Amino acid sequence: MPSPRLLVALLALPFALGASSCASDRQFEPEPANVAVAAPAPVLPRSAPPISAAPAPGWEDAPLTPGDWTYADGRAAFAGDFAMRCDRAAGRVLLERAGASRLDVSTSAGAQSLPAPGGTAAAPSRDPFLDAIAFSRGRFAVASPGLPTLIVPAHAEPARVIEDCRAG
Hints:
Layout: H1 4-23, E1 69-72, E2 75-78, E3 82-87, E4 92-96, E5 102-107, E6 110-115, E7 120-124, H2 128-134, E8 139-144, E9 147-153, H3 156-167
Antiparallel strand pairs: 1-2, 2-3, 3-4, 4-7, 5-6, 5-8, 8-9
Helix pairs in contact: 2-3
């Protein structure tokens, strides 16, 4: 009867041969014994755009505000209550709502609060949040203090205003 050491060696032989054949084409250098390992850099939170008080939870499932989009001359308007237009000279997209002092816009990708003095908020035409509006899943919400929340369908008209503004 072979010794237990011999049995262990024989059982380990196929594994050792397999590992050495996989690594035979690689060149290995011995690792230095006293290598100082740098501590990982701390993970800092990424600053996010300001999150607004936004519409009540569940806006994603609320019924759409009645009305439809219209588009003319670089301006898209929704049911006369909300509009987006391109200010090409300034390179920005204007979001308008009569009577608003602030627009709290919620999309499927997040929310942002925009100051709207005189009912008009402005965003640079390349602002990623405009993409969030254009590509929101079926709808986005526009809330303003003292005004009813609008649940607006994310149709092609707002995306067209944004694209036209970026092209100019």
